[in-house]
Design goal:
The complex is a heterotrimer of chains A (290), B (324) and C (275). Chain A has 290 residues and is mainly α. Chain A is built from eleven helices and two strands. Chain A has one domain: Orthogonal Bundle (ABC transporter involved in vitamin B12 uptake, BtuC), CATH 1.10.3470.10. In chain A, a hairpin with a 2-residue loop joins β1 and β2. Classes of the chains: A mainly alpha (290), B mainly alpha (324), C alpha/beta (275).
Chain lengths: 290, 324, 275
């Protein structure tokens, strides 16, 4: 058995897993706090990637300012999304969450084709400032991958700190457990919704930015990630952030190994098979909801 | 009752003479597309409006039906009309299986995500399994439908074939909701526990309706490709689901006229926006968004209530001296 | 002895000496995780009876109904209907055997008209296949007419005839309750379980309800009624069981139960006028 190849795939799996974790955490927050499925989440990733690319290529910004600006920009998009397509529908009585599913679906479509209109159909590759890489026993570890993992670890830690130590975080957690009760106690649920979208968008943007060197970026890249993200969220438990972290990493690893040893084309099919199996046996996810 | 027959008669007459008025082949092709997408949207509405469930992978059956019919026509030399039947059967069986597996446990959001994912996966498989599907180039050279020696070559004849199938679908669905089976499904939609308490098996009827909806979708796919004479995996792409969603939501879910109206609106708007591909989809997305936010019941129910109010206004008792 | 006297005499007159036991609950226990909702409950309901089930809130009455009608499988114990074990069957299979229930929160088909609600209820007793509907055969049309007539008859019994074309969700609670009962009647049940049918009704409506239930009993349907309204229970039932914290604390005729010390204590912790 070729250990270098195995090791390489483990590393790729870790990289992809990190992306899935960032993506799924945002998605599951939206579901946990607001009870919605955000079909436009993949496009937030796309905006993160294309945004950084545009800022660096067309505005000439250096890497770090571009990243910061981009994350802020996508967060603003999250706020706008909330304001026009999520909050008004949730407030209307009746099938609020259902309408949001459809509205985010429509918005995803608008963003994808808007993206094609702006950036064209070609794929882009980002010029990363760090070029060096490591070589551990034959496994090539590019600097971009390290940056991704570092960013992911920082993001996850920051999120936990945010959710458990800050007041807003507590508000979000309370709302996720009982939104009516939260309202009764005087919690500003609307604010919680905004914060949730901001955090989710920021996480997605980070995923997109650091995804670029790993995968080529184009306006339609969000869809594939969305499909994978759904699998992670369902297996990990909708609304369960810890579950996302474990399952996201696991999925990344499994996907990479399957791609190497069985078939690169049908990786997503494999992951989906796992998801469907989990859905049939334990629909709430492998990890019971917090 | 009499006014109903008059109404339907007029609409039917318009539908029949349309291709005689619009003489360009291109316009006739658009009419054909209206019928195809109307059938597709109606088939999805069985699940959305009729059952009160959802399926975001419905477009996959558009593709499966198309390929089923295409493969059989090419390898066995069958007339595509039999291929339509085959498409219905294949899609019903697959649909029954998926419906059974999914609807046993999943509802609402979970069902939506799962069916979405399944649709995406089927697209991937269709695209990558080039030995069977011909990859992105697909398979060309499909025969046009034949009936008793007559070949449906022209857009003119193809439209009437599609219209016939559309009328058949409409009649089928209408009779369905007035039958025992249909009432059982409506009961399940209205209140599942109550329906169970009066003897209705949710699993059985959900599977059955899913099979029916998917089967009809397959027929629309077969109809589409035998006019195109080419079949390729793009038929599995999510864009067809968006067409379905636009047709259902803009037109009106749960009604017979709604999805048909929605399909017509889609084809017409899509045609009007032909000048820019990306802009076309963007604007369609914006239209869908506007309808979801402001008019979630769609055009048709709003028209109906508007008509009702108008009729009431005309018929209300007049005070003496008021002009009619 | 109670109000089944009439029926007993009728049965005796027909030469039958024993009254059939319709429903037997043997040692039913139901746990939800760590919570024991029902604990070894035993009951016997005779044919043609109106059997009452009372108890404070949370005593497990609705849970027992849910177990009997298949919405929850029992953790232990048996539900036997006319000699057959029906424990744990799906609700729709239990309905097919002639056992129908109503729900604590009034559950009807909200967007259908009153008449459509009742016709929908006739599902089990509707003949006809889809092809009949598709081709509009004579069998189909005759059946549709019969369904409409049956709905009229049931609605007349419940005095809802004039409201037949009203959308159900537009009606008030009392009327929706009657629709619920109408749907249940449309299934032509042999055993009907009512979950708090008098909840939220004013005294006049409650009296009407008693009359309706007695009429149902007179048609030969066995009834189990879960209720809080003591007037209704005492008037209707020939036999009452009392639940508390998931266990049956006593069973007997209305008179026996009303004067039972445990029952009085459980309900009020003191003396209460139950009449």
């Amino acid at each position: 058995m070729e250990w270098t190849i195995f090791g390489q795939q483990l590393w790729f799996g870790l990289e992809r897993g990190a992306v899935y974790v960032l993506f799924a955490m945002g998605l599951t927050l939206c579901f946990g706090v607001m009870g919605i499925v955000n079909f436009a989440h993949g496009e937030l990733v796309m905006l993160g990637a294309m945004g950084v690319y545009s800022l660096m290529t067309f505005a000439g910004l250096p890497f770090f300012p571009a990243v910061v600006l981009c994350i802020l920009g996508v967060a603003v998009v999250g706020i706008i999304l909330n304001r026009i397509a999520i909050q008004p529908l949730l407030l209307k009585e009746g099938q609020g969450a259902w309408s949001v599913l459809l509205s985010t679906l429509a918005i995803s479509w608008i963003l994808i084709h808007g993206g094609y209109a702006i950036w064209g159909p070609n794929t882009q590759i980002l010029d990363f400032p760090f070029k060096q890489g490591l070589n551990l026993g034959g496994v090539s570890i590019k600097a971009t991958g390290i940056a991704l993992l570092v960013a992911a670890v920082i993001a996850v830690t920051a999120l936990y700190f945010f959710l458990f130590k800050t007041k807003i975080g507590k508000i979000m957690r309370a709302t996720s457990q009982n939104s009516i009760g939260a309202k009764l106690v005087g919690i500003n649920v609307n604010m919680a919704y905004y914060y949730t979208m901001v955090v989710a968008a920021a996480l997605a943007a980070i995923a997109g930015i650091f995804l670029m060197p790993v995968v080529v970026a184009y306006a339609g890249m969000g869809q594939g990630i969305l499909v994978m993200g759904f699998a992670v969220v369902i297996v990990g438990g909708m609304g369960n952030v810890t579950g996302c972290v474990y399952v996201g990493l696991l999925m990344g690893l499994l996907e990479a190994l399957f791609g190497q040893y069985v078939s690169p084309l049908y990786r997503s099919v494999f992951i989906y098979g796992i998801m469907i199996l989990v859905l049939l046996i334990k629909p709430e996810g492998l990890f019971a909801r917090r | 009752m009499k006014s109903n027959i008059l109404k339907y008669g007029i609409i039917l007459a318009i539908a029949i003479i349309a291709p005689l008025v619009l003489t360009s082949d291109y316009h006739r092709y658009l009419l054909f597309l209206c019928c195809v997408f109307a059938i597709l949207a109606l088939s999805a509405d069985i699940i959305f409006g009729g059952m009160g469930q959802n399926t975001f992978g419905h477009q996959a059956f558009f593709g499966i039906g198309a390929y089923a019919s295409a493969k059989l026509a090419l390898s066995l030399g069958m007339t595509p009309l039999l291929g339509f039947v085959a498409a219905f059967v294949v899609c019903s069986v697959v649909g029954a299986f998926i419906g059974y597996v999914c609807l046993r446990r999943l509802r609402g959001m979970y069902l939506a995500i799962t069916t979405f994912g399944l649709g995406a996966i089927l697209f991937l498989i269709a695209r990558n399994w080039y030995q069977f599907t011909g990859g992105l180039t697909g398979i060309a050279g499909l025969p046009v439908p034949r009936l008793f020696g007559f070949e449906f070559h022209s857009e003119f004849s193809q439209y009437y074939l599609a219209l016939a199938l559309l009328l058949l679908t409409i009649y089928l669905i209408r009779r369905l909701w007035r039958s025992r089976v249909g009432r059982a499904v409506i009961s399940l939609r209205e209140d599942e526990p109550v329906a169970m308490s009066i003897g209705i098996s949710p699993t059985f009827y959900y599977t059955l309706m899913f099979a029916l909806g998917c089967g009809i979708a397959g027929v629309s796919g077969a109809l589409y490709v035998h006019s195109l004479t080419v079949v390729n995996p793009m038929l599995f792409h999510f864009q067809y689901m968006l067409i379905i969603l636009i047709a259902m939501f803009v037109g009106g879910m749960g009604t017979l006229a709604g999805p048909v109206l929605g399909a017509i609106v889609y084809v017409w708007v899509s045609e009007w926006l032909r000048f820019s591909e990306a802009l076309r989809f963007m604007i369609l997305g914006i239209i869908l968004l506007i309808f979801i936010i402001f008019m979630p019941r769609g055009i048709y129910p709003s028209l109906v209530s508007l008509w009702g109010r108008l009729a009431n206004w005309i018929r209300r008792p007049r005070l003496r001296g008021e002009l009619p | 002895m109670g109000s089944t006297c009439k029926l007993d005499k009728k049965a005796a007159a027909k030469g039958r000496t024993a009254i059939a036991t319709t429903l037997e609950i043997k040692g039913i226990t139901k746990d939800f995780g760590g919570l024991r909702a029902l604990s070894k409950v035993d009951l016997e309901v005779q044919e043609g009876q109106i059997f009452g089930l009372i108890g404070p809130n949370g005593s497990g009455k609705t849970t027992l109904l849910n177990v009997i009608t298949g919405y929850f499988p029992p953790t232990a114990g048996l539900v036997v209907y006319k000699g057959t074990n029906i424990s744990g069957l799906s609700p729709y299979l239990i309905a097919k055997r002639g056992i129908v229930r109503t729900f604590q929160i009034t559950s009807i088909f909200p967007n259908l008209t009153v008449e459509e609600n009742v016709i929908a209820g006739s599902y089990l007793k509707t003949k006809g296949s889809f092809w009949g509907a598709f081709f509009q055969t004579r069998v189909y049309r005759k059946e549709e007419k019969r369904l409409r007539q049956k709905a009229t008859e049931i609605l007349a019994l419940l005095r809802m005839e004039e409201k037949r074309n009203v959308i159900a969700k537009a009606l008030g609670l009392g009327e929706q309750r009657r629709i619920e009962i109408a749907i249940a009647l449309a299934t032509e049940p042999k055993l009907l379980l009512l979950d708090e049918p008098a909840a939220g009704l004013n005294p006049t409506e409650a009296l009407e309800l008693v009359h309706v239930i007695e009429t149902i009993r007179d048609r030969g349907i066995t009834l189990v009624v879960v209720e809080h309204n003591m007037k209704v229970i005492m008037q209707l039932c020939s036999r009452i069981a009392v639940l508390d914290y998931g266990s049956k604390i006593t069973e007997g005729t209305p008179g026996e139960v009303a004067n039972n010390e445990n029952v009085i204590r459980v309900y009020l912790g003191g003396k209460k006028e139950i009449a």
